[in-house]
C-alpha cells in the first residue's frame, strides 16, 4: 500500500519499526534512518526482516534529508527523532512532496518551550502542496487527543472538563532513569506547570499542584499537574472546554533525584566551559544516565494513561473515563522495549497506517483530534493497546 521512512532509531523508533513490520499489507517498503546507522541495523536484525532498508542521516540538515527522500521516495515519514528536528524534516517533506507524522512538537534547542505555533505556521504550505502533516501522534500527545475526539463524537454534546491522567506504575529497578530521551524528559518536567481555565492559561510553579488519583488495576498514586502540549490544540479544537489539565505520576525517589540534578546545575541547557570544551550539562547528564532503550529487560508493572471527561449529553451532566493499561514486560517481550516507548510507537505506526489507507488524508497540518477517531480506536485494540471505558464513575477531579 505504501512506502514509509522512519527517522530515529531510539526506543520509540524501535517500536515503530517492529509494528510497521507486523503490518506488511499496509507498509510495503520500509526504511529506518538515523544519525547512527548501526542502531538502525541493530533494529532490523532484532526484527529479522532483511527487506527493511537502513540509512544514515543527520535530520538537522535539510539537504541531507532531501537527498534521502529523493532516493527512497517515501509516501510518508514517521519522525521519531527528537523534537528539535521537526521543522527541518517538515521542510524536506515540502521540498520533495512527502507526507509527515511526528509524536512531539517542535522545541528550539536553547529554550525549553512547548507550543505548536512553529508547526502550525506550515499549514498553508502543506495545503498548497497537497500534503498531509499529522502532529503529535504518540500516546500523549496522540491517543489522549483521539480519546477526546472519540468522547466528543460518541458520548458528549459538550465537553466541559478534561483531565488527561498519565500514570507509570512500573519499576525498572534503577536508582534513577527516564523512560524516554532524558534531555527532552527533564526539560518537560522542570518547566512551570500550566493549565487552562475559563479561557485563560494559569501558570504554576513546577510540580506545585499534586493530588492522589486512583488508576485502574494499580491503585492510588501521587499525580502532579504539568503543562503538556496537547492541551494547546485540544482547547482550540473543543472551544466548549472550561478547564483542561494534565497529570503525571512521579515517585518520591524520582523527584528527589530531579531536585538534586537541578540544584547542582545538571539540568542547565546553556553551554558551560569545561577545560576549554563547551558542554551542555543536561546533554552530558544524558550520556551518563541509563539509556531508556535498555530499561525493558527488568521493567515490571504497567502504565495507565487516559482521559477523564465531564460534560453534557442531552442536557444532562455525565462523566466518562477512557484509558489504556500497558504492561512493560509484555511490551518488552514483543519489541525489546519498555512500555513508554511502546505506547508511543504503536500510535505513530497506526497514524501512518490511517494515512496510507486514505482514512486520515487531507492537505494541511493537523493535530490528531482533527481526524476521524473511529478507525484509529479500532486499530488500538488490534495493535496491542486495548482501551476501556467507565461511564458516570467518580473522576476524583
Ligand atoms: P531516543 O533518544 O531514544 O531516540 C532518538 C533517536 O533520534 C536516536 O536514534 C537518535 O540518534 C536520533 N536522532 C537524534 N538527533 C538526530 C539527528 N539530528 N538526525 C538523525 N537522527 C537523530 O528518544 P525516544 O525514542 O525515547 O523518543 C523519540 C521521540 O518520541 C522524541 O521526540 C520524544 O519526545 C517522543 N516521545 C513522545 C511521546 C508521546 O507520547 N507523544 C512519549 C515519549 C517520547 P542517536 O542514537 O545517534 O543519538
Features:
397 residues, alpha/beta, nine-stranded mixed beta sheet, seven-stranded parallel beta sheet, 14 helices, 28% strand, globular, binds NADPH dihydro-nicotinamide-adenine-dinucleotide phosphate
Explain this structure.
The structure is a single chain. This protein is about 35% helix and about 30% strand. It has about 400 residues and is an alpha/beta fold. Strands 7, 8, 9, 10, 11, 12, 15, 16 and 18 form a nine-stranded mixed sheet that branches. A seven-stranded parallel sheet has the order 3-2-1-4-5-6-17, with helices on both faces. Strand 15 and strand 16 form a beta hairpin. Helix 1 crosses helix 2, helix 1 packs across helix 13 and helix 13 crosses helix 14. The longest helix is centred in the C-terminal third of the chain and has 18 residues. The termini are far apart. The structure holds NADPH dihydro-nicotinamide-adenine-dinucleotide phosphate. NADPH dihydro-nicotinamide-adenine-dinucleotide phosphate (NDP) binds next to helix 1 and helix 13.
Number of strands: 18
Q: What number is the mean pLDDT?
A: 97
Content-based structural category: alpha/beta
Outline the biggest β-sheet: 9 strands, mixed
How far apart the termini lie comes to: 44 Å
**Beta-strand percentage?**
25-35%
Q: Report the radius of gyration as a whole number of Å.
A: 20 Å
Ligands in the model, by name, code or SMILES, are: NADPH dihydro-nicotinamide-adenine-dinucleotide phosphate
Amino acid at each position: 500500500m505504501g512506502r514509509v521512512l522512519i527517522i530515529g532509531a531510539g526506543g520509540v523508533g524501535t517500536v515503530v519499526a517492529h509494528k510497521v513490520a507486523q503490518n506488511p499489507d499496509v507498509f510495503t517498503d520500509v526504511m529506518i534512518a538515523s544519525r547512527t546507522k548501526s542502531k538502525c541495523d541493530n533494529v532490523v536484525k532484532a526484527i529479522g526482516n532483511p527487506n527493511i532498508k537502513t540509512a544514515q542521516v543527520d535530520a538537522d540538515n535539510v539537504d541531507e534529508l532531501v537527498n534521502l527522500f529523493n532516493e527512497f521516495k517515501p509516501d510518508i515519514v514517521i519522525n521519531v527523532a527528537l523534537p528539535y528536528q521537526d521543522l527541518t524534516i517538515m521542510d524536506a517533506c515540502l521540498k520533495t512532496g512527502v507526507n509527515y507524522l511526528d509524536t512531539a512538537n517542535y522545541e528550539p534547542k536553547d529554550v525549553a518551550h512547548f507550543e505548536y505555533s512553529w508547526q502550525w505556521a506550515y499549514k498553508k504550505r502543506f495545503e498548497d502542496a497537497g500534503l498531509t502533516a499529522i502532529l503529535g501522534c504518540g500516546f500523549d500527545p496522540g491517543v489522549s487527543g483521539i480519546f477526546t475526539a472519540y468522547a466528543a463524537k460518541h458520548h458528549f454534546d459538550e465537553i466541559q472538563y478534561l483531565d488527561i491522567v498519565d500514570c507509570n506504575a512500573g519499576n525498572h529497578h534503577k536508582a534513577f532513569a527516564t523512560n524516554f530521551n532524558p534531555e527532552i524528559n527533564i526539560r518537560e518536567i522542570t518547566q512551570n506547570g500550566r493549565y487552562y481555565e475559563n479561557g485563560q492559561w494559569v501558570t504554576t510553579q513546577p510540580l506545585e499542584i499534586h493530588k492522589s488519583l486512583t488508576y485502574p488495576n494499580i491503585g492510588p498514586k501521587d499525580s502532579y499537574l504539568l503543562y503538556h502540549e496537547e492541551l494547546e490544540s485540544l482547547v482550540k479544537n473543543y472551544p466548549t472546554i472550561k478547564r483542561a489539565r494534565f497529570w503525571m505520576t512521579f515517585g518520591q525517589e524520582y523527584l528527589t533525584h530531579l531536585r538534586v540534578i537541578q540544584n547542582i546545575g545538571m539540568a542547565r541547557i546553556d553551554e558551560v566551559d569545561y577545560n576549554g570544551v563547551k558542554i551542555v550539562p543536561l546533554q552530558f547528564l544524558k550520556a551518563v544516565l541509563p539509556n531508556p532503550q535498555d530499561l525493558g529487560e527488568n521493567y515490571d508493572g504497567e502504565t495507565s494513561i487516559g482521559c477523564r471527561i465531564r460534560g453534557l449529553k442531552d442536557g444532562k451532566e455525565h462523566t466518562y473515563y477512557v484509558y489504556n493499561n500497558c504492561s512493560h514486560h509484555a511490551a518488552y517481550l514483543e519489541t525489546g522495549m519498555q512500555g513508554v516507548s511502546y505506547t508511543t510507537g504503536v500510535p505513530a505506526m497506526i497514524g501512518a497506517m490511517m494515512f496510507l489507507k486514505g482514512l486520515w488524508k487531507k492537505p494541511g497540518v493537523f493535530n490528531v483530534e482533527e481526524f476521524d477517531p473511529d478507525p484509529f480506536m479500532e486499530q488500538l485494540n488490534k495493535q496491542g493497546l486495548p482501551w476501556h471505558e467507565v461511564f458516570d464513575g467518580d473522576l476524583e477531579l
